[in-house]
Amino acid sequence: MQRTLLSAAIGAAMIFGATASAYAATTLKLSHNHPRDHAVHKAMDYMAKEVKKLTDGEVRIRIYPDAQLGTQRESMELMQNGAIDLVKSNAAELEAFSPSYSAFNLPYLFRDKNHYYSVTGGSVGEEILSSSRESGFVGVTYYDAGARSFYTSKPIKTPEDLKGLKVRVQPSPSAIAMVKALGGSPTPLAYGELYTALQQGVVDAAENNIPSFSLSRHSEVSKYYSMDEHTMVPDVLVISTKTFDGLTKDQQESLRKAAKASSEYMKKLWAESEAKERTKAEKMGVTFVEPNKDAFVDAVQPMYKKIATSNPELSKLVERIKAVQ
Ligand code: GCU
User: CATH 3.40.190.170: which residues of the chain?
Assistant: First the structure.
């Protein structure tokens, strides 16, 4: 009898304990627009596991991929309304929410990948992540998103080849200005609408990194990918200010630590994914073209001149980025 009572008590304690800890756990919702086999999903999945480990299960992250909760813009709005906690977006989209991000959308800003890593991993990168606090969110980390290049049904070897083409861009003033400077007609569209838009000829061309081009199956409808590598636009994970401030100091620290580790892990995932998706696209009949970049670089210089005369704050930020070794 005593034994039965004791085990019942232990059982009850265990159930109560489990319930209590389940109650204590905070589950954060994260929205993004890529499929599960995209490197950025894998990196964030790793982050979610790390956060759970570092907080002893107190903080969990549930990831909603494939724009299940809406486009990047809709997700940002849901986050600002408190319906979700985290969004993986990118600097192009974030430009509309916090102007500092526009620096990252300027073509041929970075000298090379190392320069890009030094900037995003250094103090300027950190400053930009913190710049949006008053707009209701803060940047948690950057994720490598390679270089973006044009793709369409013909090779783009010089800016002349873009003449008369409707080029899908992200809803970003810098991306619009860039395509104009290169001679194309920019058409802003949400990412999820692009496959059909290319297929039906609503747009003629688009631009993105190789993994996104391949994993979104745009490679089925655009058979030339021209490596002009005009921008290196980082992916960015952001969290609502309210959610972040609602975490304890330890939990905030754990989230930052896990995010940083996942961003490092992403560098490896990204390189692997770029190679794998390029091979996959080639097998599907995509030709990769290597244009001479000089004419592209020249054509976008007026963008920098315009910033220098009309936007001193952005101009200063651009100079600081350029000065990073
Ligand atoms: C990249 C980026 C996405 C973005 C997409 C786009 O794939 O990772 O965040 O939505 O470009 O071109 O819209």
Answer: 26-108+115-143+234-269, 148-232+280-323
